[in-house]
Amino acid sequence: MNYTVDNGRPAAYYFYEPGPDDALNPAGTDPHEVAIHNAWSLRDQLSVDRQGFELHEFDSTFQDFDHDHQIREHFYPQVVDFVKRHSGAIRVEVFDHTIRRRQPPEQMVFSRPSTEFKQQTTVQRPAVLLVHSDYTVQSGPQRVRDIVPQDAERLLKGRVAFFNVWKPLYQTVQELPLAMIDAQTHQDDDLIRMELKYRERTGEIYVMRYAPHHQWMYFPQMEKHHALLLKTYDSEQDGRCRFMGHSAFEDPQTPGDAPKRESIEVRAMAFF
């Protein structure tokens, strides 16, 4: 797993060619071999509020993943219903999606969609081979302000949580599966702020430093009727999971002739 060195400075990723005065502090430069446990036997015991993730059945009837407008019109409502049912949220706003497919090795460490201040969709990006969590204590609330500016200040007075819904597109996932850290096994100081440098603004996520007590889990052989619910931010500070580290990984048990992984992740904010 590609962890990040904690050198006291935020990591940084540039979406443009950095200049000579830009401070370079890349993430993912501290790889560690870890044990990753098969979580299928624990499926019914997992909770997004404890471990940070759950796996559930998902209606796989929709198959038109090559057309963004069809995804927005027909697949997004399924995601809204899925998040509401499994989180208890009263309002869910889906704001983008990413389709992941195998890319050349030099593109596979880190790749993020554009974070313009509007709804958008993103397709055809590589798997992220970096231990990370998608939002921070600053960028979570800011994303609410970006997506629903007219309601943001009222909504931010209550509980807000962000979820990713991750599922295979067509075939069983045999290569580059997704693994998650049980959120009960990482500490707040394992999180390192990573700045996402755009020419017009700076966003941020969390990457993570290595700690031997992190317990990793995954669901091998996920099929198209399975979906992971991943919590990437929670405003509540009552001891429940607020952030959850995750990463794709090269599974040494993957057959040499395995089909390339194709998956979709849909990002949503939920209000309670």
Describe it for me?
The chain has 272 residues and is mainly beta. It contains three helices and 16 strands. A six-stranded mixed sheet has the order 5-14-9-16-6-7. The longest helix has 20 residues, at 68-87. It is globular and about 50 Å long.
Q: Return residue spans where pLDDT drops below 50 for at least 5 consecutive residues.
A: 105-123
Indicate the radius of gyration in whole angstroms: 18 Å
**Span between termini:** 34 Å
Give the overall silhouette. globular
Content-based structural category? mainly beta
Tally of contiguous helical segments: 3
Can you write the helix and strand succession as a string? EEEEEHEEEHHEEEEEEEE
Compute the average pLDDT.
90
Major sheet summary line: 6 strands, mixed
Count of individual beta strands: 16
Percentage of residues assigned to helices: 10-25%
Strand portion, in percent? Answer: 25-35%
Strand order of the largest sheet: 5-14-9-16-6-7
